[in-house]
TrEMBL record:
Gene Ontology MF, one: phosphatase binding
Protein name: Protein phosphatase 1 regulatory subunit 36
Natural source organism: Drosophila yakuba (Fruit fly)
InterPro entries registered for this protein in UniProt: Pro_pase_1_reg_su_36
Pfam families in alphabetical order: PPPI_inhib
């Protein structure tokens, strides 16, 4: 991962100017960051200010204290990298122990994963609609055929299928299942809803989710992502009217929002995510089991969604699928996860060799004619396998480090040691200790390798079965020989 700032050390003096403060009767230093436009330093998401840029000291602190630990996917971008960056850039009022722990839960990770998949296809659909709008307008506008309308209906159904995955993962959280029970808004004994606390908790999560999806989508179409995220979780009655938001016609809205969208009075209105689960077609029922058990059937569409969902973000290039910056090498990005184009040029990507879809932008594949009718005739079989999801739980020490984020930043700014090559060498030269014991070094090594390497649990079974098979073949050959 490349640095935003070239230097590897924190400056002793900031760049700025001195002025005389007549009220305090002393000199006052104004840094250049304080003189810049606030819109350049911050970005407002749902009324909360997130950092857009970081200075040199903040970058050094983040790289030293808050980066993901080393693992088997340390060289590519995953959801954890984006989550840690957003947690570092978010306002200080978000830093509560409960909220940080919630962001590290497995169900929250799955919800963010499904949101990234959904918005990847949603942005493609919005781009398709805007292009078609230009083609149909004007004096030389094109005439739509029945095949075009059939293709649009297929695209709308495909988008609603990704929305079902988001709705399923979201309903697990709001239902308070398993580990999500401690985040449920109803108290277990008194059955009194913590309305005020739950409202702010929900607002904080929405703002963080918008930032995570926006960064994952190469920081493009921010207002489109913000508008759709608020619509999914709130409904259209409670989406703020911003002049930057796009306006769609009725036909475009029906194409984007699907056939299950219904608007009622705001008192009885359900969110679009809940509406997706109320009327699920029979051929789409296996989508609700994706990620839980292996699909067995001849519906190619369900198999494609399952493959796209269960493959980790670090291995998407093996199935030729793009989800924003997921799975891209970190050496192509800086600390803020912005694409470094000089590094891309030196990687020699081309239209023929582009495993990360950087040169070739993702696009919508035209479906076959009668695709929806063929899916109604698909068959499903009994499932055999359950899918186990690997998740590394967060520790109490990591949560406390995030809760004390501003305290740690203030400590390092006031003179705390920021590790770099020069300071680390000076510290090692001044140190007189002999270092850790040999057994401690070995235990730390095996603990690290256990996280990185894949466990071979079936090695002994495979080895024994192979040996027995060789023995059986040898005995059969020996018994089949005829005496001469």
């Amino acid at each position: 991962m490349k640095r935003v700032h070239v230097d590897n050390y924190a400056p002793k003096y900031y760049s700025g100017k001195w002025s005389w403060d007549s009220e305090k009767d002393c000199l006052h230093f104004q840094a250049h960051n304080d003189l810049e436009n606030a819109r350049e330093r911050y970005i407002t998401t749902n009324g909360y200010k997130f950092l857009r840029t970081i200075d040199q000291e903040e970058e050094l602190i983040f790289r030293q204290e808050y980066l993901l630990p080393k693992s088997n996917y340390s060289d590519v971008v995953v959801v954890g990298d984006i989550r840690n960056l957003v947690l570092y850039l978010m306002p200080k009022e978000f830093l509560s122990y409960k909220f940080v722990e919630f962001m590290y839960e497995q169900d929250t990770h799955l919800l963010l994963h499904s949101l990234i998949i959904y918005f990847e296809h949603y942005l493609r659909m919005v781009e398709f609609i805007l292009i078609r709008r230009d083609e149909l307008s004007g004096s030389l506008g094109q005439v739509q055929s029945e095949q075009t309308n059939d293709m649009k209906r297929t695209f709308s159904v495909y988008l609603s299928q990704y929305r079902m995955l988001v709705a399923r993962n979201y309903c697990r959280i709001i239902g308070g299942e398993d580990r999500m029970a401690k985040y449920y808004h109803m108290k277990p004994i008194s059955n009194i809803s913590a309305t005020i606390h739950d409202k702010y908790f929900h607002e904080h999560f929405l703002a963080v989710a918008i930032q995570i999806v926006w960064i994952c989508m190469h920081r493009r179409a921010y207002y489109v992502i913000e508008m759709e995220m608020n619509r999914l979780f709130r409904s259209e009655h409670f989406v703020s009217a911003h002049p930057e938001y796009l306006t769609f016609t009725e036909s475009e809205r029906s194409l984007l929002y699907g056939r299950n969208k219904k608007n009622y009075n705001y008192r009885i209105q359900d969110s679009p995510l809940v509406q997706e689960l109320k009327l699920v077609p029979e051929e789409d029922l296996p989508i609700l089991w994706i990620g839980e058990r292996k699909y067995r059937g001849n519906d190619i569409r369900i198999a494609e969604i399952e493959l796209e969902y269960i493959v980790p973000g670090s291995q998407l290039r093996f199935i030729n699928v793009s989800h924003g910056i997921m799975g891209h090498p970190k050496n192509l990005y800086n600390t803020l996860l912005s694409l470094d184009w000089p590094a891309v040029r030196f990687s020699n990507f081309s239209e023929k060799f582009d495993p990360y879809h950087i040169i070739k932008r993702p696009y919508l594949q035209i479906p076959k004619i009668g695709e929806l009718h063929l899916r109604t005739m698909s068959e499903r079989y009994e499932h055999f396998y359950q899918i186990c999801k690997a998740h590394e739980p967060v520790t109490h020490h990591q949560i406390c480090k995030w809760v004390k984020r501003d305290i740690n930043i203030a400590f390092f700014r006031s003179g705390g040691l920021l590790t770099n090559v020069v300071s680390r060498c000076e510290k090692e030269l001044e140190s007189t200790s002999s270092g850790p014991r040999v057994d401690q070094i070995i235990s730390n090594y095996f603990k690290m390798m256990k996280k990185i390497r894949k466990e071979d649990r079936d090695g002994d079974v495979v080895l024994s079965s192979s040996r027995s098979s060789v023995t059986e073949r040898f005995s059969l050959l020996k018994g089949s020989r005829k005496p001469t």
